[in-house]
Structures are given as C-alpha cells and as structure tokens.
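A.,

Following up on our hallway conversation. Structure tokens first:
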C-alpha cells in the first residue's frame, strides 16, 4: 500500500492535527489544462493508441477540464492529474474505503469510478469540505476526538461519514454508526474515537 510519503511527513515534524487542519482542507483547485497545453494533450492518444476523452466537471466547486484515458479511475485522476492527494489509494479494489469521495453529493469509491463517468457532475474531495479556514463539523469532530492514528484512512472516513449523515440522517445509536460505516476500514483500530466523532458531528450537522 502506497502511503504517499506519510512517513516522510512524520519525520518532518508535521503533526496529525496539522495534517487534518492543513493538508486535508486545501480547497483551491485550478483548471488543469488551458490554451496550448490543452491543445497538445487533445492530440495525444494513450500509449497504446486509445483516444483520450475530455472530462469537464466541478471539482470542489471549481470548473475543471482534463483529457484522460477513458479507462482512468477518478482516484488516479484526482491524485495524479489534479494533485489532490487527500484522497488516498489503499487497497485499490473498493474494499477499504480510503478513496471515498462525493459525486453529486453521494459517496463513491473513486478507485472503482471511471473519471469519464463524472463528466458534467460535481466532485467533492476532502480538500473541498472546509469553508475557507473553517473546518466542516465532521472534520472538527475528528480533531476534537482524535479520531485517527496514522491518518491514512481518515479522509475516506470523514467523506463517508458526511455523506452518511447527509443521505440518511443522524444514526440513532453507536451500533448504527458502525453498521453504516462498515465499508471504511481503519487498520489502526481507532473505531471507538471515530464513532465518538461521528456521534457528535451529526448533531451539529442536523
């Protein structure tokens, strides 16, 4: 599992709280391809000759136009083409939930979602949840309850929890929170604090 130089960040002195408050909430996204760069990319097929497709979507509220291999996943496009590294590549098989993002407000596993399928749609990543410097209630609750250890699964946990509450309303019990969040794995087993964070955040979100 590629943990995106998280170990290097730890050696640099970046704390888990700074990671949540900074790396996961950067909201600015600039359209990737403009002018001559877009024209050059439009003429270039993939390495095996498959014609690329243009995807135009709203990513964290900003219009983005990018040409991609039609087989490219949303996860790889976000990370490698749009430099949105908050969405993590865990199992890359749709089993761990680390890559969870929102498409038109619904949670999806971006490793199983084709980037081309998001054309004309709204995509939200962990970087787009905050309102400027103000954290989303779910992000704040994870900070307050220290609902993480290594932090690798945290973006997916938060994105899944937000969509869970928005789609289905507040859970009625801790057991229901665990059931609804069963698709998101925390290998550090920080589940009690994750449940505490979601329980508090859903009251604010309501």
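Then the amino acids I'd put at each of the 206 positions:
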């Amino acid at each position: 599992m590629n943990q995106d130089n998280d170990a290097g960040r730890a050696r640099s002195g970046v704390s888990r709280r700074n990671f949540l408050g900074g790396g996961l909430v950067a909201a600015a996204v600039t359209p990737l391809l403009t002018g001559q760069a877009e024209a050059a990319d439009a003429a270039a097929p993939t390495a095996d000759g498959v014609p690329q497709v243009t995807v135009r979507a709203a990513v964290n509220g900003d219009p983005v136009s990018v040409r991609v291999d039609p087989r490219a996943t949303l996860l790889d496009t976000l990370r490698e083409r749009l430099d949105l590294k908050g969405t993590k590549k865990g199992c890359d098989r749709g089993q761990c939930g680390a890559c969870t993002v929102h498409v038109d407000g619904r949670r999806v596993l971006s490793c199983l979602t084709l980037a081309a399928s998001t054309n004309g749609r709204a995509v939200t990543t962990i970087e787009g949840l905050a309102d400027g410097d103000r954290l989303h209630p779910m992000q704040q609750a994870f900070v307050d309850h220290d609902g993480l250890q290594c932090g690798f699964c945290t973006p997916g946990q938060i994105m899944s929890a937000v969509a869970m509450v928005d789609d289905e309303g507040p859970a009625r019990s801790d057991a229901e929170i665990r059931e609804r969040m069963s698709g998101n794995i925390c290998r550090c087993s920080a589940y009690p604090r994750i449940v505490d964070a979601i329980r508090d955040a859903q009251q604010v979100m309501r």
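Residues 1-40 have pLDDT under 50 and may be disordered. Curious whether your intuition agrees with the design.

B.
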